[in-house]
Amino acid sequence: MKQTIQFTAIIERENDGYVSLCPELDIASQGHTIEEARNNLIEALELFFETADPSEIQERLHTEVFVTRLEVNIG
């Protein structure tokens, strides 16, 4: 039985494309568009779960990830 788990995706522009990162597992991918980078990250995560040993999943998995904005004084 397949289950669905939600993960965080951070997507940022890099040169002429986009890089996507799942910080919970430190897995990244890329694409020419935001949607392609998102879909490629989903595929990379699915492949990871298909092939990774359960001990590797436990070792890499960060259960608490916080994404926030910061205000920084410069100058």
Automatic annotation (TrEMBL):
Gene3D superfamilies: 3.30.160.250. This is Type II toxin-antitoxin system HicB family antitoxin. SUPFAM superfamilies: TTHA1013/TTHA0281-like. InterPro entries: TA_system_antitoxin (IPR051404), TTHA1013/TTHA0281-like (IPR035069). Coiled coil: none annotated. PANTHER family: ANTITOXIN HICB, UPF0150 PROTEIN SSL0259.
